[in-house]
């Protein structure tokens, strides 16, 4: 695959979310490349593109959406001094276990 066709393939893949979901054979068809799906796969792998299953998006209820919006609107004019006074926590729980031998 020439550098020009390689660039065209990469530009197409990063152009939209729909393009990233196409299978390799469809990518060849959509970009008018005459090559196998394996060639597409090898080319994208060489450019550090990997297929991954996307993580499920967390559902936000209407109540939580409203609360987030209210919080954002209440704090949108805060400056750095205000934010330095906030204590951030990840709310992780740590459980101590007694391990016996």
Précis, in short:
The protein has 101 residues and is an all-alpha fold. Helix content is 52%, strand content 0%. The chain contains six helices and no strands.
Please describe what this structure looks like.
- The protein has 101 residues and is mostly helical.
- It has 6 helices and no strands.
Specify the overall morphology: elongated
| Helix content class | 40-55%
| Whole-angstrom Rg | 24 Å
Mean pLDDT: 86
Low-confidence spans: none
Terminal CA distance reads: 61 Å
| Strand segment tally | 0
Largest sheet: none
Structural class designation: mainly alpha
Number of helices: 6
Percent of residues in β-strands: under 5%
Q: Report the order of strands and helices.
A: HHHHHH
Give the key terms:
mainly alpha, 101 residues, 52% helix, single chain
Task: Provide the fold topology.
Layout: H1 3-15, H2 17-20, H3 24-30, H4 37-46, H5 62-75, H6 80-84
Helix pairs in contact: 3-4
């Amino acid at each position: 695959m020439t550098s020009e066709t390689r660039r065209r393939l990469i530009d197409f893949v990063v152009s939209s979310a729909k393009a990233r979901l196409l299978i390799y054979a469809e990518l060849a068809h959509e970009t008018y490349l005459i090559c196998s799906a394996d060639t597409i796969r090898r080319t994208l792998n060489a450019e550090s593109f990997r297929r991954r299953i996307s993580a499920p998006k967390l559902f936000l209820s209407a109540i939580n959406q409203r609360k987030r919006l209210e919080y954002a609107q209440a704090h949108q004019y805060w400056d750095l001094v205000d934010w330095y006074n906030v204590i951030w926590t990840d709310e992780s729980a740590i459980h101590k276990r007694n391990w016996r031998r």
